[in-house]
């Protein structure tokens, strides 16, 4: 929905240089948005004066709008200043699936702002608008889908309200502006709280997506190698099935460990989501690799006989699979095994305690 104030343009308050073109002092967003704002300002100026150049101004505005929407997406909402060449806008671009059909399938949402003379003498409101821009950058880089649309629309409403306040004010009154900014900063704090809560959830999802990709790749590769070795005649394949099973079980154990902590409903698992979605996904790829290494290392420790173990089953394949899964699932379990193996190898293992002698039997009477 496009919102256009119905107030008639007051040409006597329009600040323009000698050539009649408004000068842009500050801009956030697409470069073509300033052209669109200036074209809209000139069109309204010509319409207010009833000039014969209105048709030319209308054509220029239409061309600027078409060029802007072709680059940035459709205008979802826009607020035009009726006094100066200033505006804030929200655009919804093409779905990201057209560029990446696997990872991000949501539309790109952006905030655009051009403030000319409207905030020149209103420093508190200019700072408020700047803080909105900074938070919008964080939202665009972290959130996706519905949560991104909600946060960006919320930020747009704060900026729209700020420009509307300046247009409704009769002159710049610092005390009134500070009271207005204080109220809007409370709203901005609620938006940031919403962003932090949803950003933490989005970060976990991105991290786990990387883990699922890596764990699936490891399991598939191990399964293919197991089938190939089973049908081949290589003599060294005896025992290789234990190695492949330990690799895949350790990777799956690491994945299940993170999923179980996430489903606990508390903050036992958290990630720094503001490092960026690509880096979070890359970090998620590493976790199953670490679990696979732990599984393989545990297999070698047990197969080498470094630890005295007792199995409750004669099925060694199941035994090593469970142990490798636990090694990837629990770092504490792996630490205990490696710690005991280290003490045995270094000769620091304490001698088992000797059983106490049985008490002397009482004489029978």
**Secondary structure tally, helices:** 9
The helix-and-strand class reads: alpha+beta
Tally of structural domains: 2
Q: Rg to the nearest angstrom?
A: 33 Å
Report how far apart the termini are: 106 Å
Poorly predicted runs of 5 or more residues: 1-22, 350-355, 360-365
Spatial ordering of strands, largest sheet: 1-4-3-2
Instruction: Let me know the largest β-sheet.
Output: 4 strands, antiparallel
How much of the residues is beta strand, in percent? 5-15%
Based on CA inertia axes, which overall geometry fits?
elongated
Mean pLDDT: 78
Helix content: 55-70%
**Counted beta strands:** 4
List the helices and strands and how they pair.
Layout: E1 26-28, H1 31-49, H2 54-72, E2 74-80, E3 87-95, E4 107-115, H3 123-142, H4 145-168, H5 174-231, H6 240-262, H7 277-303, H8 316-329, H9 331-346
Antiparallel strand pairs: 1-4, 2-3, 3-4
Give an overview in words.
Helix 5 (174-231) runs parallel beside helix 7 (277-303). Residues 1-22, 350-355 and 360-365 have low confidence and may be disordered. With 365 residues, the protein is α+β, with helices and mostly antiparallel strands. It has helices at 31-49, 54-72, 123-142, 145-168, 174-231, 240-262, 277-303, 316-329, 331-346, and strands at 26-28, 74-80, 87-95, 107-115. The chain folds into two domains: 11-172, no CATH class; 205-346, no CATH class. It has a four-stranded antiparallel β-sheet, with helices on both faces.
């Amino acid at each position: 929905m496009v919102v256009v104030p119905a107030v008639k343009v007051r040409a006597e308050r329009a600040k323009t240089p000698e050539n009649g073109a408004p000068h842009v002092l500050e801009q956030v967003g697409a470069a073509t948005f300033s052209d669109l704002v200036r074209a809209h300002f000139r069109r309204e100026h010509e319409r207010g004066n009833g000039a014969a150049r209105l048709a030319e101004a209308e054509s220029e505005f239409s061309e600027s709008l078409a060029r802007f929407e072709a680059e940035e997406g459709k205008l979802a909402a826009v607020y035009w200043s009726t006094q100066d060449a200033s505006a804030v806008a929200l655009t919804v671009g093409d779905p990201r699936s057209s560029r990446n059909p696997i990872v991000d399938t949501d539309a790109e949402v952006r905030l655009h702002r051009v403030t000319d003379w409207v905030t020149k003498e209103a420093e508190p409101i200019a700072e408020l608008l700047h803080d909105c821009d900074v938070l919008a950058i964080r939202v665009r880089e972290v959130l996706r889908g519905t949560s991104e649309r909600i946060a960006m629309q919320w930020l747009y409403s704060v900026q729209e309200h700020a420009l509307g306040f300046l247009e409704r004010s009769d002159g710049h009154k610092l005390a009134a502006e500070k009271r207005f900014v204080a109220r809007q900063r409370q709203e901005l704090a609620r938006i940031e709280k919403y962003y932090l809560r949803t950003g933490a959830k989005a970060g976990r999802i991105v991290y786990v997506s990387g883990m699922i990709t890596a764990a699936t790749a490891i399991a598939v590769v191990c399964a293919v190698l197991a089938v190939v070795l089973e049908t081949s005649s290589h003599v060294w394949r005896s025992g290789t099935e234990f190695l492949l099973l330990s690799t895949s079980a350790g990777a799956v154990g690491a994945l299940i460990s993170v999923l179980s902590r996430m489903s606990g409903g508390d903050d036992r698992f958290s990630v720094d989501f503001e490092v960026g979605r690509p880096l979070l996904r890359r970090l998620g790829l590493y976790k199953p690799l670490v679990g696979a290494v732990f599984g393989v290392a545990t297999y070698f420790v047990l197969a080498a006989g470094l630890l005295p173990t007792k199995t409750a089953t004669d099925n060694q394949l199941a035994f090593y699979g469970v142990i490798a899964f636990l090694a990837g699932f629990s770092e504490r379990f792996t630490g205990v095994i490696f710690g005991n193996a280290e003490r045995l190898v270094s000769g620091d293992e304490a001698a088992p305690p000797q059983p106490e002698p049985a008490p002397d039997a009482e004489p029978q009477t």
